[in-house]
Fold this protein.
Amino acid sequence: MKLTAFKRALWVFHVPTGSCNGCDIEIVAALTPRYDVERFGIKLVGSPRHADVLLVTGAVTRPMAERLRRIYEQTPDPKAVVVVGGCGTTSGVFYESYNIVGPVDEIIPVDVYVPGCPPRPEAIIDGVVKAVAKLERLEAGEAV
Amino acid sequence: MRLVTGQGFWSPLVWLALAAGVALLAWAFWFRGRRTYKAGTDQDMPFLSGEQVPEGAHVGGQHLYWGFVEGLRPFVDRVQAFHTGFLGDYMTWLVVLLAVALLVVMLT
């Protein structure tokens, strides 16, 4: 088996846009000792200005749309957006709700979708790894 | 080019070398910055949890002590009443406290 490593640590910023916290708790679970993604250099950061990946949860409520757009703008390039959960992916049970303007790809470009209600930590880690692969292709100047 | 004093020496060449070293360090930091940074966009603005940043926004000095002020609110309210802004009041306090200190010293 060929083992490959990330070229650098991957910093992730978590943006809840109106989620029920189910997906957010699973993201936290990915950080706990059982999964411990920090051993791979993947860590949550407190500002999008330090981030390589945006991890977006929630169906995007009307007030959050503008804020999500601004956070996306403030994230330096190259960046990847991973949507975690069914709500962010398709609006889920909130589809066509009066105060929902999502799903997330209606507001900002999305690179990876991790469906589930909520998705397991393994699925979230897999989504982030797919985002890493995209970032490395972008940095190498390859077609995405 | 070298002034020797009793405590050491002063040389403009040393200061010039130091300034050049600092400039080199600053350039090295700048050079390692992200080249994809987009000037004139939201990337220029501070991050306030996605909120729109008001014009000229900054964190005031009093905000740094917010916890202390709130924690000591009864004391702060009482002390603030003494801060009238009149120099005469402050001088009166000084004289009164000096007199009290003098009294304490004389009695002990």
In short: The first helix of chain A runs from residue 22 to 31. The longest strand of chain A covers residues 10-16.
